[in-house]
Amino acid sequence: MRIDIWSDVVCPWCWIGKRRLQRGLELLGDDAPEVEVHWHPFLLDPDAGPEPVPLREAYAAKFGGTERTEQILASTQATARAEGLPFDFDRGQVRVTTLPAHRLLWLAAREGDAGAVGEALFHAHFAEGRNLADPEVLVAAGRAGRLPEARVRALLDGTEGEAEVRAHVAQAQAMGIRSVPTFVIDGRLAVQGAQPPELFAQALRQAGGDAPGGAPSPDAACGPDGCRV
């Protein structure tokens, strides 16, 4: 069974959703299908540049102040930790472009292990507060996905993969995907947001049967289970 996932590595709900999908598969036990996961890029903050800006500062500007920012971060962190994810928003996270990280994932999908690289990038940002535009951070994430350091540095020193990533981002927009995470199961059933594991299990059962699927909803809000542009 093929699962296509549109995600950004600075979207907290994308890591939470990834964990909940895994738990949904576990709920199916022996009935769980073999899955082939394909990761697709989404630029949640397309205007972000390579210079780091403190995340709290960026959130305060976006969400209307410090108090609201702290509420969002505290709520998100509590949800993530309940899923067993080591979120720590006191580690100095920064707002930067994720285009280099998506180029790395593009490379990993062809020459390494994109799932492992994605997991390393999530951990670097949310658990360690690392700058995802820093080449050293990207080299370390690439190493987690069996990519040689020299290969990653060569990628980052040029523009390889950039056109392909931007084309995939444009394709997501053309499909009506406006929020992440978005999961499309077998090309016909869409799950929007970091839904509970039970819902993922239900969707996987449905996709394995003859029930009709749905389409990604462009109206899904950025709220307790997803992030939106």
UniProtKB/TrEMBL annotation:
<protein>
    <submittedName>
        <fullName>DsbA family oxidoreductase</fullName>
    </submittedName>
</protein>
<feature type="domain" description="DSBA-like thioredoxin">
    <location>
        <begin position="3"/>
        <end position="204"/>
    </location>
</feature>
<feature type="region of interest" description="Disordered">
    <location>
        <begin position="207"/>
        <end position="229"/>
    </location>
</feature>
<dbReference type="GO" id="GO:0016491">
    <property type="term" value="F:oxidoreductase activity"/>
</dbReference>
<dbReference type="InterPro" id="IPR001853">
    <property type="entry name" value="DSBA-like_thioredoxin_dom"/>
</dbReference>
<dbReference type="Pfam" id="PF01323">
    <property type="entry name" value="DSBA"/>
</dbReference>
<dbReference type="InterPro" id="IPR036249">
    <property type="entry name" value="Thioredoxin-like_sf"/>
</dbReference>
